[in-house]
Amino acid sequence: MNPLSKIRYFFTIIYKNGGLWKSLCKLGRFDTLKDGRYVGCDAFGNQYFENPYYFLGRSRWVEYSKSVKLEYDATQITPEWFGWLHYRTDRLPDQDCPKFLLKSCCKSQCWLLNHEENLSGTPSAYYPYDTTRRRIDPWDGTSICSRRSN
């Protein structure tokens, strides 16, 4: 590539990302600017893109929903799109996903759960109920020590 085509490509990427301000915001959020073909959107609002001219393994990517701001996580990708994103299949979820076909059937909707992100480390995390008696109680810091001081 000659220097003029690199500069033209740079301005093309800025234009396709919505201008200078939106490109800077996207660069601050995702650390990269890419241009590609919009492929689809999932239930969380994540957008999926593809550009076959990039290296294999870098040619498909997700732009997470703006509602999660900077708290995006890989567990927010639904299983339908996970296979496409990681090159397990070249078909889109609405073309080749058994779960998509199951969701269209009225009998399966009663037992098939929707995808949830991993909530570990948040107040909504799952903590199992413990039925066994504790052998060691943690010190709360307010009780007086039973040991005598000399």
Would you summarize the structure shown here?
The chain is an alpha+beta fold and 150 residues long.
Descriptive report:
The protein has 150 residues and is an alpha+beta fold. The chain is built from five helices and three strands; from the N terminus they run H-H-E-E-E-H-H-H. It has helices at 3-16, 20-30, 79-85, 93-96, 98-104, and strands at 37-41, 47-50, 60-63. Strands 1-2-3 form a three-stranded antiparallel sheet, with helices on one face. A hairpin with a 5-residue loop joins strand 1 (37-41) and strand 2. The longest helix is centred in the N-terminal third of the chain and has 14 residues, at 3-16. It is flat. It starts with a helix and ends in a 46-residue tail after the last helix. The relative contact order is 0.08. This is NADH dehydrogenase [ubiquinone] 1 alpha subcomplex subunit 12. It comes from Papilio xuthus (Asian swallowtail butterfly). InterPro entries: NDUFA12 (IPR007763).
Largest sheet: 3 strands, antiparallel
Strand tally: 3
Query: Average pLDDT, to the nearest integer?
Result: 83
Number of helix segments? 5
The quaternary organization reads as single chain
Spatial order of the strands in the main sheet? 1-2-3
**Strand residue content:** 5-15%
Regions with little confidence, pLDDT below 50 for 5+ residues: none
Helix content class: 25-40%
Rounded to the nearest angstrom, the distance between the terminal CA atoms is: 82 Å
Order of helical and strand elements: HHEEEHHH
Over the alpha carbons, how many angstroms does the gyration radius reach?
Answer: 24 Å
Task: Classify the secondary structure makeup into a structural class.
Answer: alpha+beta
The shape, in one word, is flat
